[in-house]
Every structure is written in structure tokens, then in C-alpha cells.
Amino acid sequence: MRREARAFAGAAVVFLLANQMAFGGEKHSKSFAGIASYYDKNYRGRTARGDRYDPTKFTAAHRTLPFGTRLRVTGPNKRSVVVEVNDRGPFIKTRVLDLSYAAATELRMIGHGLVRVTAEVQEPPAAQ
User: Fold this and answer.
1) pTM of the predicted structure, to 2 decimals
2) What is the pLDDT of residues 92-111, one digit of tens each?
3) Any idea what the CATH number is for the domain that residue 117 is in?
């Protein structure tokens, strides 16, 4: 009986750890760097959060950051813009952000396509 109880407890611990890692155990650092792309100015559609994409707003897509997270994104020319995460992506693994057309314009990315950026978390999203 004791052996069964220990086996059950061990299985429960493994399950809880696996569940935490899969659903919410991911930690986000305060800053990251990598390649960013941007949405085409003619793109029309909805974001993963359900918003209608607006090319005039400063928004971004990130794979895992919570919706509502605000990021200060800085390009190689030292220009920066604050964006709000409202979509999921980019879906190309070598990229870290997809920026709205307005954010890309502010960073002077238009015409360059891909630009190396740094991003710093400005504020966590409000508790939902």
C-alpha cells in the first residue's frame, strides 16, 4: 500500500510540473532582441485577440507575451516606438515580432522588410 501511495504521489508531482510548464510556466524576460517584420499596409483582418487590425495603431504580434503587454521597440537607427501586443506571431521562427504598419513607419522599417530590433517590456497587462 505504501508503495502505491508513493507511486501515486510521484505521478501527481510529475503531472503538476508538466502542466505548469505547458500552461503558464513560461517566464518572459524584461527584454529581448531579434528580427522584426511588419504587416502590409493593405492587410485587413482580425488579430488573435479579436480586434480588427488597424494599420494606424502601434501594435505587435508576439508568440507568447500576454495580450495587452506594452513593449518599447528600438531599431538599429535608435528610433523607438511603444506598441501593444494584440496578436500572435510571427510564424517564421527566426523572427521575434510582427509590427503594425504604423509602428514600422515610425521605426523607418518600410522598404527594408526585416530589421533587427530590441524590445523591452514597459508594463505588464492588467489582470483579467
Assistant:
1) 0.75
2) 999 999 999 999 999 999 99
3) 2.40.40.10
